[in-house]
Amino acid sequence: MNIYMDASLGLKYNSPQQQARVITENWMSENMYCVMCGEHHLKHLENNKPVADLICPACQNIFELKSHNGHFGSLIADGAYDTMLARLMDDNNPHLFVMEYKRKECIVENLWIIPSYFFTPDIIIKRNPLPPTARRAGWTGCNIAWKNIPVLGKIPVIYQQEVLEPKFVCEKVSATMALATSKIQARGWLMDVLYCLQQIGKEYFTLDDVYAFTDYLQERHRENHNVQPKIRQQLQFLRDKGFVEFLGRGSYHIVNKE
Fold this sequence. Notes:
By secondary structure, this protein is of the alpha+beta class. Helices cover 30% and strands 24% of the residues. The protein contains seven helices and 13 strands. It has helices at residues 16-31, 81-88, 166-176, 184-200, 207-211, 214-220, 227-240, and strands at 43-44, 54-55, 62-69, 75-80, 95-102, 107-114, 124-126, 141-145, 155-159, 162-163, 204-206, 244-248, 251-254.
């Protein structure tokens, strides 16, 4: 994999955004493999297809690419809010590649894959509509809350210009597939509990450690009035899927999925 991009592809475009889109998407189709099945190359989808950029010709998984010159902050700017929410309800919701590059050197600095089943409506943040004076007045975009995605779902492909072994990346993605669910509500609870475990920040933790987030989870799931039983349910699910180990007496161990 060549981490340098072809800057000449953007010369015929005046807009820096258009230049970046052409250069980064071309790099992806020339260099990126499918992290879901291992196919060697991805293909471009036709322009203007909502919330999708690339497709695997073998397994037909769809991928969106979001790139940024320099480092992303806590939010990643994305497309139309309504379109993103609609795609979350779709079984064909695209997986997301997140790229940080250096424009001057035209080099890929970091690249992550976020499988689609790590996305919930709470991660998609609605922006204010464009004002009446704008060319697309009333259009409403969205941001992706990068900081709210569990670490388990941010799988590095390139890290600080180092290309990770494709076999290792595919295995990491495959290990998370047990968490996939098409039920948005169930996915929301699971991702929120994973986020709480991430905030606890310990390999060994107790049920009381997770119960400390009861108010946080109640605020996020106001329709549910049995938060602590729901926490235990999610921990049981994670145990059954091999992500945590129950040690007895309310104690747990996070299984290393490296």
